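Friendly challenge for the regulars: who can give me the structure tokens for this chain first? No prize, just bragging rights.
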Amino acid sequence: MDSLFSRYDKWTKDFMESWKNLDWKRTLETLSKDVEYYENPIDKPCADFEEVTNLWNVVADNQKDIEYKYKIISYNENICIINWQMTRVMTKTNTKQEIDGIFQVSVNDDGLCTLFKQWRFTR
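First reply, four minutes later:
Bragging rights claimed.
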């Protein structure tokens, strides 16, 4: 396993584990403060890190019982494409969701995400 793959794999594990553990502050620590963050790739990116924080600080209140898996599909020095699947329960409705998604990320030498885009289908 090469070091570039290892960097992307470590970032993905850290990001997904913190999400699974509902530790949104740790999730934010996987992101660069100047991350270009697209919650939805056809919308404009978040204006600043505070907007990213506002997306994540509700996670612990609105979901639980998260399980996930992922596979790195493709990567180079600039971009990594990750296919991920997740199940979770939305706490307000007690509805179980299945998600299949794609992350497009860039990670700097410090292992922090500088570009984040996601596409996802929820059932």
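The first strand starts at residue 31 and ends at 38. DSSP finds four helices and five strands in the chain. Your move, everyone else.
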